From TrEMBL:
<dbReference type="Pfam" id="PF16870">
    <property type="entry name" value="OxoGdeHyase_C"/>
</dbReference>
<dbReference type="Pfam" id="PF16078">
    <property type="entry name" value="2-oxogl_dehyd_N"/>
</dbReference>
<dbReference type="InterPro" id="IPR011603">
    <property type="entry name" value="2oxoglutarate_DH_E1"/>
</dbReference>
<dbReference type="GO" id="GO:0030976">
    <property type="term" value="F:thiamine pyrophosphate binding"/>
</dbReference>
<dbReference type="InterPro" id="IPR029061">
    <property type="entry name" value="THDP-binding"/>
</dbReference>
<keyword id="KW-0560">Oxidoreductase</keyword>
<dbReference type="GO" id="GO:0006099">
    <property type="term" value="P:tricarboxylic acid cycle"/>
</dbReference>
<keyword id="KW-0324">Glycolysis</keyword>
<dbReference type="GO" id="GO:0045252">
    <property type="term" value="C:oxoglutarate dehydrogenase complex"/>
</dbReference>
<comment type="function">
    <text>E1 component of the 2-oxoglutarate dehydrogenase (OGDH) complex which catalyzes the decarboxylation of 2-oxoglutarate, the first step in the conversion of 2-oxoglutarate to succinyl-CoA and CO(2).</text>
</comment>
<protein>
    <recommendedName>
        <fullName>2-oxoglutarate dehydrogenase E1 component</fullName>
        <ecNumber>1.2.4.2</ecNumber>
    </recommendedName>
</protein>
<comment type="similarity">
    <text>Belongs to the alpha-ketoglutarate dehydrogenase family.</text>
</comment>
<dbReference type="Pfam" id="PF00676">
    <property type="entry name" value="E1_dh"/>
</dbReference>
<dbReference type="InterPro" id="IPR001017">
    <property type="entry name" value="DH_E1"/>
</dbReference>
<comment type="subunit">
    <text>Homodimer. Part of the 2-oxoglutarate dehydrogenase (OGDH) complex composed of E1 (2-oxoglutarate dehydrogenase), E2 (dihydrolipoamide succinyltransferase) and E3 (dihydrolipoamide dehydrogenase); the complex contains multiple copies of the three enzymatic components (E1, E2 and E3).</text>
</comment>
<dbReference type="InterPro" id="IPR031717">
    <property type="entry name" value="ODO-1/KGD_C"/>
</dbReference>
<dbReference type="InterPro" id="IPR042179">
    <property type="entry name" value="KGD_C_sf"/>
</dbReference>
Length: 958
């Protein structure tokens, strides 16, 4: 017995489904037809099974699909529920009416599988039985039968089956195919049905609009051909085959402006990037040519290739000026996406635009990268979360159907479409044939309208081709001979459209005239976007000039007056009576109140909180995000107090840092999704668009930054030397060897040290509460914006030795080097024979060992800023001990990790003649730390003892 038959027979045996329950059956079935996901699984299984019961001629009534439902309705009539009398002919007609609704639903659901999307026409139409009338038992005799179509938007309440099929095919199987039925939002589904079915997915453009589309196609093709002939063999990652994309960008910019959008931030990889720069953003062609000719000014330490460059401009639209920003992007393709989203969020916050009405993110993808790179999944996961939403993103796929040339189509993905990943956020997708530029423009119009209406992501998937190789030195026919035979025979999208317009009577020479005009503009190096506004400046524009060209050696005025400290501390530690904190949290805040009054030393959590409080009170917004940022991974922060008596999950929280002063700047703390790469990219983008906000990303454990290494390598470390983009992002990376195994010990200090050059970042490892206070304040109060990497501790969060007296907050500043703190040793500085230099929590282990052994001839200094290395402060610290013969660098990390290999030459440079430099730490290791606690303790004991022992192994003499 088949599964279908068993479900069918089980239904017939359930008499409780008939009689008085028939209205329930009818309603459930209608809900199923509208949205199968809206009914319980058991009902959906039954109704699904009914669809596959074979259709017959009606001679055997028990074999008619959906007969049980029809019989249920008949039974309802017998019970007095309706006056309709169902005869056998009526039952068959009822079956057909139901089948018509199923047919409509099928086209809406999977009609795009039959759409004419491929310009190269390489694949046959797949077999999809549910799109065939015969699947539902219809024959040619049914073609003129009139059915109810009132749930469609074809303009008629009743239509012959033939006309309905034609309308469905035109709407869902033309050169534009839509996917939207998987959304659970009924309003959105009806919106798409109305938009598509009312025009049958066919644009109605006037002659001027068609000429504009042809103009943009001409520009797209013209630039590529000009570059191809003038700069033979040079890489440019041509857009040829995907020229309709430029028409889509033109539509997007102009329509967005008309809808009130004032800024558009664009992220895209290198395919077609030069075309966008010139033909969408209005970069002067002569400036692009100068880059090809290698005559452009080289004003950056490193620079980057031309197809990674960003650009900004202002263009005129019907709604007013629109500022366009193309984000700088490395070759890591999709990694720019969260960066763009973060930049957009910063601009939204600056404009007090929480819905994204004035700022629009646009992300342009390649087909293989969009489906293949995990950062897209992470970025989509951020889309509707409170701390990261940007009001919906318009995604455009330049789908050249080939990925990276050598991939076999069978190996490109495991999904039907490269866009299937967006179903995770129920984003609709419009698949469109790139050879129909009018359909491409229509799809872009609809996508923008949807985004502005529903504030959700939406995708335009332009199926096109790539005329040349991955780059212009590639020969794709080596691995794709069949595809490139078809491409060689293709006349080009512009030519096809020009011929179409000529046939419509819009001018036999229109296409040729446009080609000549564009070529003349190229030869003259003129603008190809009209009009570009050269003197416009928005009131929301950010001036970065105060932060450029400054030296890191300026400490900044980071202390705060005692009266201000006490005022802020009282505000910070006062919890309203209406909030019932957990008893452990209450104790934390009671202790902090005592710290604020100066009754006890200040611990790490209070020092950090007071830094944030003083900043927001002074007008500097603070944005802190990470996987446990509200509470703190090690429960030291408690920036968000949860009312223990609250009754709803989304109410009953209190954030003290949002209540420390009148008219204070915002304090935002976000418990992020479980993501590092996308979240860090987002925060980098945010910080790069707002130099006046302290933007902090905190890793749950320092080594979790591994998952975001591409952001660190290609943006944080090198963005300024490659692109001239300053950025003040702060990273907090918990670091410290506590016997917790390899994954919870190291934030990989050595990786940041390896990336450190050109004063590109600040790498610090503070060891006291006052130090974290001052370094966080320093990041904002001085006119310097460089990434700040803070290696934060774990055990020191509660170590009394790491607390600081109140006086260290009301005077002083961040100390890049903390000299010896033992007065007795300093009084006899000439007796010191050895100086131990270290960084981080190992300092406290060394001091403890020195005290236990009553050592008096060893000084210990802390390097709190390991990069840029503080030569002046370090030299002053060791100069106090002229008779010291040994300098020892001691670290927790293995010898091939940590700071040792990167800091030794800096120490050596500042040593006195005759002094020797040695190392004490763990032996080199392939793993950051051991996983056995007893072995950890043995290693820790040995490295601390080694710091006081006779030098051995590698010794460097001055």
């Amino acid at each position: 017995m088949s599964d279908t038959t068993s479900v069918y027979q089980a239904y017939q045996g359930n008499t409780y489904l008939f009689g008085g329950n028939a209205p329930y059956v009818e309603e459930m079935y209608e809900n199923y037809l509208a949205n199968p996901g809206s009914v319980p699984d058991t009902w959906r299984e039954y109704f699904d099974a009914l669809q596959h019961v074979p259709a017959v001629d009606g001679s055997n009534a028990r074999d008619v699909p959906h007969l049980p439902v029809i019989n249920a309705f008949a039974e309802r009539a017998k019970q007095g529920g309706t006056k309709v009398v169902v005869a056998s002919a009526d039952a068959e007609m009822g079956r057909k009416r139901t089948a018509v609704q199923q047919l409509i639903a099928a086209y809406r659901n999977v009609g795009q599988r039959w759409a004419d999307l491929d310009p190269l026409k390489r694949t046959e139409r797949p077999a999809i039985p549910e799109l065939e009338p015969s699947f539902y038992g219809f024959t040619d005799a049914d073609q003129e039968t009139v059915f109810d179509t009132s749930n469609t938007f074809f303009g008629k309440d009743k239509m012959p089956l033939r006309e309905l099929l034609n309308a469905l095919h035109e709407t869902y199987c033309g050169t534009l195919g839509a996917e939207y039925m998987y959304t659970t939002n009924q309003a959105q589904k009806r919106w798409w049905q109305q938009k598509l079915e009312s025009i049958r997915s066919k644009p109605q453009f006037n002659a001027d609009r068609k000429r504009q589309i042809l103009d943009r196609l001409t520009a797209a093709e013209g630039l590529e051909r000009f570059l191809h002939t003038k700069y033979v063999g040079q890489k440019r990652f041509s857009l040829e085959g995907g020229e309709s994309f430029i028409a889509a960008m033109d539509e997007l910019i102009q329509s967005a402006g008309a809808k009130g959008v004032q800024e558009i931030v664009i992220g895209m990889a290198h395919r077609g990037r030069l075309n966008v720069l010139v033909n969408s953003l209005g970069k002067m062609p002569k400036d692009l040519f100068a880059e090809f000719d290698h005559t452009a000014p080289e004003d950056l330490p490193a620079g980057d290739v031309k197809y990674h460059q960003g650009f900004s401009s202002d263009v005129s639209t019907a709604g007013g000026p629109v500022h366009l920003s193309l984000a700088f992007n490395p070759s890591h393709l999709e990694i720019v996406n969260p960066v763009v989203e973060g930049s957009v969020r910063a601009r939204m916050d600056r404009r007090a635009d929480p819905k994204g009405s004035q700022v629009l993110p646009v992300l342009v993808h390649g087909d293989a990268a969009f489906g293949g790179q995990g950062v897209n999944q992470e970025t989509l996961a951020l889309a509707q979360t409170r701390g990261y939403t940007t009001g919906g993103t318009v995604h455009i796929i330049i789908n050249n159907q080939i990925g990276f040339t050598t991939s076999d189509p069978r190996d490109m993905r495991s999904t039907v479409y490269c866009t299937d990943i967006v179903k995770m956020v129920e984003a609709p997708v419009l698949h469109v044939n790139g050879d129909d530029p009018e359909a491409v423009v229509l799809a872009t119009q609809l996508a923008l309208e949807f985004r502005m209406e529903f504030r959700q992501d939406v995708v335009v998937d332009i199926t096109c081709f790539r005329k040349l190789g991955h780059n212009e030195q590639d020969t794709p026919a080596l691995t794709q001979p069949l595809m490139y035979k078809k491409i060689a025979a293709h006349p080009g999208t512009r030519k096809l459209y020009a011929d179409k317009l000529a046939a419509q009577g819009l001018g036999a020479t229109l296409g040729d005239d446009m080609v000549k005009a564009y070529r003349a503009a190229m030869d003259a190096g003129k603008h190809t976007v009209d009009p570009v506004l050269t003197n416009f400046k928005s009131k929301y524009a950010v001036d970065w000039s105060p932060f450029l060209g400054k030296k890191w050696t300026d400490a900044g005025d980071t202390a705060i007056p005692l009266t201000e400290w006490k005022r802020l501390a009282e505000k910070l530690t006062t919890i309203p009576d209406s909030v019932a904190p957990h008893q452990l949290v209450k104790k934390v805040y009671d202790d902090r109140a005592a710290m604020g009054r100066g009754e006890v030393n200040v611990d790490w959590g209070m020092g950090e909180s007071m830094a944030f409080a003083s900043l927001v009170a002074s007008g500097y917004p603070v944005r802190l995000s990470g996987e446990d940022s509200g509470r703190g991974t090690f429960t030291h922060r408690h920036a968000v107090i949860h009312d223990q008596n609250r009754e709803k999950w989304d109410t009953g929280t209190y954030v003290p840092l949002q209540n420390v002063a009148e008219n204070q700047a915002p304090f935002v703390v976000i418990d992020s999704i479980l993501s590092e790469e996308a979240v860090l990219g987002f925060e980098y983008g945010y910080a790069g668009s707002d130099p006046n906000t302290l933007v902090v990303w905190e890793a749950q454990f320092g080594d979790f930054a591994n998952g975001a290494q591409v952001v660190i390598d290609q943006f944080i470390a090198s963005g300024e030397v490659k692109w001239g983009r300053a950025n003040g992002l702060t990273l907090m990376l918990p670091h410290g060897y506590e016997g917790q195994g390899p994954e919870h010990s190291s934030a990989r200090l050595e990786r940041f040290m390896q990336l450190a050059a050109d004063a590109n970042m600040q790498i610090v490892q503070p060891t006291t509460a006052s130090q974290i206070f001052h370094v966080l304040r320093r990041q904002m109060v001085r006119d310097l914006r460089k990434p700040l990497i803070i290696f934060t501790p774990k055990s020191l969060l509660r170590n009394k030795d790491a607390t600081s007296p109140l006086a260290e907050f009301t005077k002083g500043s961040f100390q890049t080097v903390i000299p010896e703190q033992n007065e007795a040793i300093d009084k006899k500085a000439d007796k010191v024979k050895r100086v131990i230099a270290c960084s981080g929590k190992v300092y406290y282990d060394l001091v403890k060992k020195r005290t236990e052994n009553e050592v008096t001839d060893v000084a210990i200094i802390r390097v709190e800023q390991v990069y840029p290395f503080p030569h002046k402060a370090f030299a002053a610290a060791i100069k106090k001990y002229p008779n010291a013969t040994d300098i020892v660098w001691c670290q927790d990390e293995p010898q091939n990790q940590g700071a040792w290999f990167f800091i030794q030459h800096n120490i050596h440079e500042n040593m006195l003649d005759g002094q020797k430099l040695g190392y004490s730490g763990r032996a080199a290791s392939a793993s950051p730390a051991v996983g056995y606690s007893h072995l950890h303790q043995e290693q820790q004991k040995a490295l601390v003892e080694g710091a006081f022992a006779k030098l051995k192994g590698f010794v460097l003499t001055k």
